[in-house]
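Bump. Still looking for Rieske-type oxygenase structure tokens.
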Amino acid sequence: MTAAESDAIRVIEAEAIPARFARGWHCLGPAEKFSDGRPHTVNAFGQKLVVFRGANGNLNVLDAYCRHMGGDLSQGTVKGDEIACPFHDWRWGGDGRCKKIPYSRRVPLRARTAAWPTLLQDELLFVWNDPEGNPPPADVTIPRIEGVTSDEWTDWLWTETVVHTNCREVIDNVVDMAHFFYIHHSFPTYFKNIFEGHTATQIMKGKTRPDIARPDAEGNTMLGNTSVATYHGPAFMVDELTYHYQGFDLESVLINSHYPIDEHSFSLHSGIIVRRSEQLKGPAAEVTARKLSGFIQRGFEQDIAVWRTKTRIDNPLLCEEDGPVYQLRRWYEQFYTDAAEVTPEMTGRFEYEIDTTRPVEAWTRETEENLARRAAEGQPA
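Sorry for the wait, here they are.
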């Protein structure tokens, strides 16, 4: 490299955000939220949808605007197994077909609207999006979460937040080890990624930062954590997250999911369940789950504060400890590409483990300096 080349200013590149939305299963949230017999508005994939449960118990997702005269079905009424338009009472079934027009002898043959494939699993409602209009392939699935149906685990605690940026920002976190220290005040000591097919996995082990850690109300201090987090498709991550304490482990399952509202915003969801144990009996498990849910929500707020002011960048300038950002984005590209044009480079198995030697040395120094400064200032450690 010549002197002129090394002195050249790096220019940030950012192509226009694609108007296309990712192919795959997207979680709309707990099914219970949509099961009260009323229609619900969901703004997703650049349009308005209506979600309703019919008398038959099925949860349905349709385009919200009636194909008759454009009435908003999400402002209508559930009547039997259909959603009735508030404008002229046209009745639409969960399959997208008009079933009845009370004032007409017959229903027009072409009276059909878009019905979205749905999946009800682990008390969560998923909707399938495919710009090509194809149904979900049999091998593209969401794994079952065993603890949801077990009394040994708490019920879902669920939060939702609207984020005003493109959802690629949240996906980048899969490979971004360093931000966990600087943004979330954790201390990664091991970090590995595995991409294969429609899944992207982050394996992370960490210890508690001595300059941040405080004992809980019972006097327990967290020693560290182990996380195995996998995106199943473009928008639903299951994280088997274990917190290590002196003498016991706290097991939890964290969901990090989202669906795009439009190109410039998305609905970010988190859900958590906690395994009951000798240390977490009865109500103590629910109390712990609420604390962890609040902790996770604060973590999202830390991310959102950065996303709110950063710029989109397609050519990030990386050091070797930054992880496989470009490989992750290549994996993510498969969901924005026609199925016939998905390449082996997008779906082939890829593994990368970051050498954490230098980060651990630097972060150890920083935490020790923080503790020394507090001691010099007479602050508690």
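Helices lie at 3-7, 168-172, 178-182, 283-309, 325-333, 344-347, 357-376.

Edit: fixed formatting.
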